[in-house]
Amino acid sequence: MEMLIPFRPNSVPLTPIHFLERAATAFVDCPALVYNNNNNNNNGGGSVTTTYTWDQTHQRCLQAASSIKSLGIKQGDVVSVLAPNIPAMYELQFSVPMAGAIVNNINTRLDPRTLSVLLRHSESKLVFVDHLLHPLLVRALSLFPPGAPHPLIILIKEDNTDDNTNGSIKGTNMVANYNQLVDGGNPGFEWVRPKSEWDAIALNYTSGTTNSPKGVVLSHRGNYLLALDTLLEWSVPKQPVYLWTLPMFHANGWSLTWGMAAVGAKNICLRKFDAPTVYNAIQHHHVSHMCGAPVVLNMLANLPNAKPLKNTVHILTAGAPPPASVLFRTESLGFVVSHGYGLTETGGLVVNSAWKAKWDRLPAEDRARLKARQGVGSLGMTEVDILDPITGQAVRRDGSTLGEVVLRGGSVMLGYLKDPEGTSKSMTRTGWFRTGDVGVIHHDGYLEIKDRLKDIIISGGENISSVEVEAVLYTHPAVNEAAVVARPDEFWGETPCAFLSLKRKGDEEVTEKAVIDYCRERMAHYMVPKTVVFQEELPKTSTGKVQKFLLRETAKAMGPLKVCSYTNNKVITQISRMQ
Predict the structure, then answer these.
(1) For residue 506, what is the domain's CATH number?
(2) In DSSP terms, which residues pair with 215 in a beta bridge?
């Protein structure tokens, strides 16, 4: 018999904003945000200038939300944030949704043209901009078509900085600075709760590694589930000390901006960071947890004269699979590395390494190899599989049969903004989200990413994983960064082209021939790069992902790799042996 209840107490929409409300009670006087605005050079060496408790953070977010609402921002409007990992950036992850709006964090390393495109595409009504980034915003707004509506502007200005805008925001709709907005808000504001847990909470644009960023719309429900899921899978205890090395603009810090409120963390904010800054912050604040792309691991592993840490630091990494050599070096310094997998379209990590205690007894090389795998689907991801792109059937669990990674679960995006065709293409008729990533499943059910579909190199009919070639290149003692893409080849169709940066710039002992010979001793010959290009630094997004589309363009511009003759059988035989 159905019970007719006018207002169902079990039907309250799920939202991660509730984490902040709870933190204000459960962790009322515990530090929530710690920031030293002189930490550009040394986060640990100076006095802390800003510390807010969870009660203060909750109150500030309420007041900011009140002021945002008073500016005419309506439920469902997009509010953009262009700022580094500073307290205001963290607070806005809560206060914007508390005003009923959709938070749109913007990559701080975008060029003015791309920023202009994203602001217009999102129809952003209000932009919060850090005082050091306002010139970028001004240039972006100047590229708006004549007559196009401009968003309102709120300047985030630190208390001890001069107002150095020099009039450059004149002509824009700047209405206040962030501190004025917070101070002028209503402390008794009743925040705008979502009408449905499927309402949008965030709009995140993809990182641009494919040269075509898309607007990913995420729900309150999805981010609520994902934040708790990540905390559980990563075994995060109450009140950890979390160091913000992962940009908050990257998928809302993998949803951990909200997640850290759930566990009452002390959030150590960094405006900028490098390896020495990270080490100083870890020691000074007794950091227990941090996140970052594999490039962060590489940076830490290559710090000259790095000494083992005094306290254990758990670091969660995702993106391109970290090479085993980098994992080994990082863990030897005292970091405990957890590896996961996710996309902007899932709001964060939805596959994790699910480390087994018995693996701790394995030799270092075996541990690193296992940890380089992405693992199994998280508890919040209903299903994870790898399908044959032609038949649509699940591939064999043999660790070698390639297919496309597909997902089902609560944190998968609502869709791409204003792109029904792109949304439709990303979803199969059988209800899977297509990731565009190529992987295998091992006998034990663990997934391992091999490449992006577009990054698989097909040479003479053989599929070559660029990730596998990169893993070998990273074992070379002189190599700092490695990326492999396809270069056109007159005989094989395409062959691997390696782009490398070296630990010692201009190292004359490291030549193209030396690198190729090194690879020939360690991999199947058909996988060996036929071209090696040395660069001071590889092009990357702000989240540390190598922009392979730029490298592919460079390789293509080199022209096809030529062979003297394709008609002489002897020559073909010799080439086959080379491969």
Answers:
(1) 3.30.300.30
(2) 205
Output the DSSP codes for 166-230: TTTTTTSEEEEEHHHHHHTS-TT------SSTTSEEEEEE--STTS---EEEEEHHHHHHHHHHH
Q: How far is residue 73's CA from residue 95's CA, in Å, rounded to a whole number?
A: 12
Tokens 């080379």 identify what position? 578
Separation CA 108–CA 136 (nearest Å): 9
- How distant, in Å, are the alpha carbons of 62, 74, 122 from that of 192? 10, 10, 21
pLDDT value for 85: 97
Q: Is residue 465 part of a domain?
A: yes
How far apart CA 473 and CA 295 sit, in angstroms, is 15
The two three-digit tokens of residue 118, written as one number: 């994203």
Give every CB contact of residue 207 below 8 A, 6+ residues apart in sequence.
107, 213, 250, 344, 541, 542, 543, 545
Structural domain including 532 reads 456-578
Structure tokens at 247: 């940009």
In a domain, 462, yes or no: yes
152-156 vs 126-130, strand pairing mode: parallel
State how far the Cα of 48 lies from the Cα of 87, in Å rounded to an integer: 13
What is the Cα–Cα distance from 545 to 124, expressed in whole angstroms?
A: 26
- Find residue 281's DSSP bridge partners: none
Confidence of residue 320 (pLDDT cuts 50, 70, 90): low
Tally the domains of the chain.
1
Q: What is the pLDDT of residues 403-451, one digit of tens each?
A: 999 999 999 999 999 999 999 999 988 899 999 888 899 999 999 888 7
519 touches 472 (CB < 8 A): yes
| DSSP state, residue 291 | E
pLDDT band at 167; cut points 50, 70, 90? very low
- Token pair, residue 272, equals 């900028």
| Beta bridge partners of residue 314, listed in sequence order | 289, 336
Supply the DSSP symbol for 342. Answer: E
Q: Which tokens in the block code for residue 178?
A: 């962030």
SS3 164: coil
Token pair in block for residue 283: 């020691």
| 574 part of a folded domain | yes
From the centroid of its chain, how far is CA 300?
Answer: 18
CB 313 within 8 A of CB 334: yes
Q: Where are the alpha helices (DSSP H) in 212-354?
A: 220-233, 251-254, 256-262, 275-285, 294-301, 324-332
CA distance 452 to 465: 9
How, if at all, do strands 348-352 and 335-343 pair? antiparallel
d(CA 386, CA 397): 9
Cα 349 to Cα 180: distance, rounded to the nearest angstrom = 36
- pTM value > 0.90: no
529 occurs within a structural domain: yes
Looking up tokens 């597909």 gives: 406
Single out the residue of 390, 386, 376, 478 nearest to residue 440, CA to CA: 386
How far apart (Å, rounded) are the C-alpha atoms in residues 209 and 187? 42
